[in-house]
Amino acid sequence: MTPVNELALESLHTTTTEIFTGALAACSIESAFDRRIRFEGNMLHRLLPDGSRPETIDMAQYKRVLVIAMGKAAAPMLDVLLVRMKRRKGLRGICCTNQQAKKRNWRFRYFEGGHPLPNEESIAAAKAALALLKKAKKDTLVFFLISGGGSAMFDLPLAADIGLDDTMAFHETLIASGAPINEVNTLRKHFSAVKGGRLAMAAPEAMKVSLLLPDVPLRSLDALSSGPTSPDHSTVDDVRSILTKYDLAPKLPAKVRAFFEREDLPESPGNKSSRPAFLPKMPWAGAVLARKVTAAATMVDEDGAFRDSVFEMLLSSHDMVENARMLGKKAGYYIAVDNSCDDWDYADAARYLLQLFHSLRAAHPRLCLLSGGEVTVTLNRTPGAGGRNQQFALACALDLAKYPGEALTVLSAGTDGVDGNTRSAGAVADPTTVARALAFGFDPEKSLAEFNACPLFTALGDSIVTGPTGHNLRDLRVLIADRS
Q: Does pTM surpass 0.85?
């Protein structure tokens, strides 16, 4: 095999990065709205994939329309909704995201919530939303625009004696635990006054439409922003089991620990074992949506606050992977997709995907292996600058160093444009990464052990920097081999 030259390797970096950025650009919130829902005057239609007659809500029957938008995509989701929905009479709302909104509508209050840890604005936004929803009656239609990141940037402790500092410490402990997102969010749901369905409970009589942009596994959609509007099927017993499993109780602030140790720790709304599983879509109720919607095979709970609820998933990580697949195929690569390491430890995921990658590239000279979802990192020390994507990429770089002269690249990046505590979305690694890092005075293995991958990749010019994208469709890993 002829060793690959620097220009060829640089070209492969570009191709790998363009697959990620191109797939992200194709996940347009505007086009997702247009594929899923349509406004025609006072009529709101849900467009069915099979092309059959759309299901409809007659908005004219509601005197007030409230909108609660939260998460990293809150501002762009709200902007699109306001453009598509011409109605302005009786319209008010809350928008909570972690960036300053570029456009502001005077009918809305805007908050800059914290992420990955909540801040004062996170608490203020939750209080404002609860106050607004208390005004919602049967003549009120509420839109909830929910995207990833809302668990931190929109929160309010259920216990009044728990302040912001303890709330931040609670979230920080969960981030460092290494627990998968569904377990992390089980604890968040039971801790919070606006999660686990409690936000919906604040407006029990109103009709509620939740539009979702999930950054969680589709099997666990009620973990999105810790499920503020969906019935929670986890229990207090689950909470105690998770605390024990990860030995979290001793690491929690005293007041938070005391809260979880209460014998009367309240269950979240809709946690009864007989409740149906959370699914991504539910039927709307014909030409004019009925006040009572059946719960069969839907996300709707029999509890009153959930009977008047509908849900629609606008985009998901599957859209991201599918767009990447099409771009890779267009570039002439054999495409393989494996999402099975979702929620795995980053090191386990790296070993698994690299083994599959090396096996497949033996048979396919031009290979593109795609993997969606997120990996986890368990922090056993104060971290340096990095995140799960750069940690994954650096672990892969140590493996790729065994294949000098071969045209191999691995990219791992977050669709929100932020990886951990850095301004990078992720990084690209190749067989020269380790050697180049050593030449720059870095110790790659030490950087990995100290969760400090960002300075290394930044120095090499191999960081993926997009800036905040206003999106959050989980992470994408792209592994490319090219022997053409």
A: no
